[in-house]
């Protein structure tokens, strides 16, 4: 290594990168030695480096020097801060000593002057207050007496001042000093005192002032010192000289701090006793602190001016008091808010403090960074708690989700639709962003977006668990069923994908855009800089969306995997796609009938179904639908390509692949590529994989010594056969000539077997007729006798042989219908044999013509002995159009019947009166020609997959009485012609995608009794003509985008039969019409989740038949009308989430049939639950969350006439303890007392609640043991409890019994933020249903239990901020479903067990464990 000397100092070599690395390992002082030398020559150093270094080495040198500069600056900064407080302390001590020395010098000088003056015989005028000075004539005669008076006055003055100070009579002491000043000034004006005497008196007064100040400084820290005394020192300092001010340097700050701390102590008890200190306490506290700092700043400026040393001390003191404020706010407010996840309260508190703090900036005090440093961790904790709450709610939301898509709340007229759990998830995320947005200064964007990615990942995991395959795997693994509702149908499964896609692609980025600072670019920046920042932020947002998209891709892959496995395996787990499928073909003597293998037919049909569904669900996102189809197809084909067992049997099996097997292989791959190409989801990867499969199959045949190419037909043959197969599977094949195309390469005559069979059947019939004419007369008599006998004992047999054959055209049509059905679980079609079709089950013929008039083959079979659901698989054959006499076609509820309604149906089935095809898998549009079927009285096409719009020709069906089109995929407008159906009794179009306006003339349907337009996308106002629906009894308009006011009723007698009215989940505005009382037949009314406002109309009292009233989620205000007490039949009343005020009317006490009452989250001022409410004889579910109930637990609930099943008193101001009599509520299922101020222990009697499933007591002040919760008596296997949240209390024990008793079916257990000690019990591994376990922020010790690894369903485990020690058990590797883990801030040690899932978590999951090592932490030291 090359060494050189620069400026007489030996310099370490800095050559290549290795040299720099070695230099970096030295201490900072060693690296700076060369630059600190007095002989260091900068020019020589630079020149020497530039001459001998290459460009790369110079870059290393530049980087090294820059890093050295930063490290040196940081070291200097730390040194200044470290010694700053010591410097201030020393300066204060020196200043205090200077003041004491000056006071001593002045006192000695004053006393010497007095003594000297007395010795010279000086005369003083009027030294005593209120005494007139002697005249000039008397002065010369009274010198001796004046000297005596001066001595006497001075002694009395000093003695009285000492007394005043000792007794803390500050005002009198100041008055005495002021009087002495006036005496001196008067004597000076009159010239009655000599100069020496005057000076001596002034010095004595000054010394007395200093002594007064010193004594006040000594007593200032005492809490009994009065405010006037404190202010006195400032006054003295202002009047004194500069030297005097130095003696009271620290007093101003001591003064402010003393006042501040004393006042805070007064505020503390009020804050502690308050249920929710919130904004009021925070406002008082921050205003007090910063006003005190402002006053101290003003006093300091008045006393010390702009002296930098005093200003520096002021800043230090202000920072200290601000830090104290931060500590106090954290303890009293933010800690609880952060622990409970009350981000909104925490944000409000932070804003208040920062607002008061900002007022000091005008005085040069910028204290905001101090508060931000203190508040940010707790706000981040509250943010994390909110994110955790959203995550924890995912499973609960999904458990009740039916996976039907509805428009998102507040979504306007967007075409995007989400299921209920995704809607709620989106709503919670939007609320979270609204809470965080005002806290821009805290820079929460990164943790929020990171947390959101994690929460979304968790929600996607929940969606994945809703797939049937996930449930099956869980059951097979012995994990038990999931609490997530299973998405059984393909539409529901695609809804899972739609949830994730819309959230990641639209709703979450829209919310996150508020946090991405696109609008915060400095306007003064250069345009180029703005462009760079904008590009950076666009890239940042794109990366964040990609992370969300990865979760969506996981969900998509799970969907494809499930459907691929359903195709590849049977329900019993047997493999369908085996090599035997191809190797067996060469074992037959005859050439097989060429058609794609059944598994690829099913793949095509499934892809077609998914494509049809996806086209409706993923509107505007067709690319995702295409990628989904691509991925599903590739999953199946890749399985063939990658399955080693499959290819080992093909290539090395006992039965080799032959020419026929190869030909079938080729045909299957051609078929896949053909339908993928026609469906526009053929990818290059799929093409390549299919080609590789064919090539490998060809090689396998070649290995047997057979030339594969000589036995394979031309490529055109494969394309032709695949195309024919597609047409046949879609029902588009042309069978008009009853000829079947030959699909064999040999084009054998057997391809016409269908025609031959029918011809042969016709010939046989003719022969039978001619043969019967040869019977003799005797034989005829004998036959008549036999028939007579059989007619008595076997009438059905006689009927069967006596009825003539049906029309040949009809017979052919029915045979083709049967041929198109591949599976009939009822067995009815198996009995369709022979030519007498009129006797077949499900067929009715006309007696005179023997034409088929009815086909009755419903899926639900009901007899005296049997009721069961059957199904048919296959296609609705177009041959049914030949049944031109058909009047009734009932194929409803067959489940799997697919295909389309032929376009020409209206030109053939002209006699049809009933068309029932509901509950199948039919698709395509409803043909326009249906309007030609003018005899139709009933159409039931519901629960299929019909597309496009409702044909306008339907208005021509004047005889139509019932029209059911619900649960399809119909879109477009409702045709105006529908108002022509004057005989229509029932119109049900719900659960489609209809948009536009409701026809204005819908009121013309005068016979209409039932109308259901719910769950569509209808917009605009409800037509006023609905008042003309005089026969209407049921009207459902809910879950649309309807706007405007409710237009009915107008007059008495309007809609007199209306019994059921649903208008919820729209955007209706205005007041509830006061005329609602006209609807006298109303039994159930729902106006929930609109924008209705104003009071509840008193006319509600006229709805005497009303049993259910839903008005929740609006903006209704004022008080509940007294007339509500007239609703004697009312069973359910939900007024939650409104702005209803005041007490409850006494008249409600007459609601004797009321069972469910929800008044949660209004502006009610209940204070306590009225006695009459608890005495309602039928009330079993009481929900009064957020109703401002105060005091102890309501005693009125102790003995209710009806057993309580649900009680929600959360978010109130309850105090005291939970009473023991709660244990008498033995039928209680749900108990929510969270977010109150309850204290004491959980009563022992809670063990009597044997039906309790949900208990939520979080965020109270409960203490003692929790063991009684887990000792509930139960009659259920695994216990009754499923949800237990006891977090954010002060429980100290009882967790040791978890898993020992019968309550082992708990799915969520949260005991975080308590005072629990000892360790986790080993019995916790018996909680076989546990999915979420949170014991964070306790005082738990000992080692982690190995048995916890047996909780195999565990998904979330949080044990952070405890004192766990020892190693992490290897058994935790069995927690395969674990997706969130936090063991941080414990005393764990040793190596983290290697393997998933433990190695896959971030390092933050294990941080704060000093002796823990291994992935993802740094490696363990050997």
Automatic annotation (TrEMBL):
Residues 1057-1263 form the Disease resistance R13L4/SHOC-2-like LRR domain. Residues 153-367 form the Exocyst component Exo84 C-terminal domain. Keywords: Coiled coil, Exocytosis, Glycoprotein, Leucine-rich repeat, Membrane, Repeat, Signal, Transmembrane, Transmembrane helix, Transport. Residues 808-845 form the Leucine-rich repeat-containing N-terminal plant-type domain. Residues 163-190 form a coiled coil. It is found in: Membrane. It comes from the Eukaryota. One of its GO terms (biological process) is Golgi to plasma membrane transport. PANTHER family: EXOCYST COMPLEX COMPONENT 8 (PTHR21426), EXOCYST COMPLEX COMPONENT EXO84A (PTHR21426:SF15). Belongs to the EXO84 family. This is Exocyst complex component EXO84A. It comes from Chenopodium quinoa.
